Amino acid sequence: MAVFPAWFRGTYEEFLELVSRVRDAGGFLPAKVEEKNVILFLGLMSDEEDAIFPIESPIQSIEELKAVVGDICFTPLFRKMLSFIIECYLLRQMPLLQGMPRIGKTYAYQTFKNLVYGPQASYIYLDCSSTTSEAEIFDAIRSAYTANAFLLVHHFDNLPHATQAIFRVLGGHRGDLAEEIHEVHLGQLRRGPKTFVGFEVTYPEVIKGKNTIEPGMARRVVWNAVPIEESYKMERGVYTVGQCPECWLNGEWIDLYPNTDDFFECSNCGLQLQKYSDGYIVLPFRGKGKIKPYSLPAKTFMDWLSPLYGVKGSGIDAKFYLFNNEQELYAYVQGFKRDDSTSS
Question: The domain containing residue 28 runs over which residues?
Fold first, then answer.
């Protein structure tokens, strides 16, 4: 199913054909809507329905678009987070994304910035700590309004309530981002057509040292929380229950089995994992399908398979690389082609 938008001029069947074209293009497609250059993004709503968002963008060619989104791992979670951000932007509201670390919240915001403002455009990045000053906050807000820019407030929950409350000035009368600000430290500011502010937080009940959201700010943002259970599965890389992480990224659940080299191998794509420390190394070469006869699947040996590391280099020069999120794992495995001549 797909959400039929008001801007589309055509039948529902024609809209479904458009959804199919955008999906075949990798989830993003340059187009013209009402004589405007837009990027059509295949989003995913919370009820699992597809939705097409037309995003006005300085990007006009497929080549420019590929440079921005070519390495994106188009997972359901990424689609939901980016859909939420874009919907808030179109409604002039302030999004607050909540989730455990390393699930791609910042990556979704950065993708939004690249699409809406262009990959070369700068944005205001406020990395909050318990010692972030009022002056730093006022400077960030002033910059967003005067430069008609995007302000990302990272680690907003590091701030104590009294400091969080400074951001109340951004709340408009209709639940939107304030069109005008009159404040003694900021003077008079007027919102530009692309002025936008987004927030990131984690879970204070799980992450030590984090604060809850100040009540006044909680009423001024639109809250979207990634469930802790889903966040946990994504933390520090991709977690599966003994299945191939690469196939999981592509929406398939394929069991891993021990091969004759004592690695866990995927029978579908040949990806190999080797035990290391508290997780598993994603090896930089694929297996040849030599699964041990009568062997049991990886899920028999563990509750969670956590491929935290990849390997760069070989032999004594090999270096371990920690995946921060699913996007990095996806980019890492794309270069590994299955080759029966490869020694595993």
Answer: 1-70
Residue 141 lies in a domain: yes
Question: Has residue 296 got a pLDDT over 50?
Answer: yes
What is the average pLDDT across 169-193? Answer: 92
| Chain mean pLDDT for the chain | 85
Pairing of strands 124-127, 150-154: parallel
Same domain, yes or no, for 55 and 93? no
CATH of the domain at 190: 3.40.50.300
Mean pLDDT for 197-211 is: 90
Q: What is the pLDDT of residue 235?
A: 45
Residues contacting 29, CB < 8 A, separation 6+: 21, 22, 39, 40, 65
C-alpha distances in Å from residue 108, one per residue of 143, 218, 304, 320 = 22, 21, 26, 26
**Secondary structure in 3-state letters for 18-63:** HHHHHHHCCCEEEEEECCEEEEEEEEECCCCCEEEEEEECCCCCHH
Cα 275 to Cα 264: distance, rounded to the nearest angstrom: 9
pLDDT computed for residue 210 by the predictor? 93
The helix/strand/coil state of 139 is helix
pLDDT tens-digit profile of 25-76? 889 999 988 888 899 999 998 767 899 999 999 998 888 898 888 777 677 8
Secondary structure element (H or E) that encloses residue 127, with its range: strand 124-127
Give me the helix-helix angle, 105-117 and 62-69, nearest 10°. 160
Q: Quick check: helix, strand or coil at residue 110?
A: helix
Q: Look at phi and psi of residue 237 and say left if phi exceeds 0, alpha if psi is from -120 to 50, else beta.
A: left
Residue scoring higher pLDDT (247 or 147): 147
Residue 276 is assigned to a structural domain of this protein: yes
